[in-house]
Amino acid sequence: MLTKRIIPCLDIKNGRTVKGVNFVDLRDAGDPVELAKQYADMGADELVFLDISATLEGRATTLEMVLHVAEQVNIPFTVGGGISSVEHVDALLHCGADKVSINSSAVKRPDLVNELADKFGSQCVVVAIDAKEVDGQWKVHLAGGSIPTEINLFEWAKEVEQRGAGEILFTSMNHDGTKNGFANEALAKLSSELNIPIIASGGAGNVQHFIDTFKEGKSDAALAASVFHFGEIPIPELKKELRKNHIEVRI
Question: How far, rounded to the nearest angstrom, does the alpha carbon of residue 70 sit from its chain's CA centroid?
Answer without folding.
Answer: 17
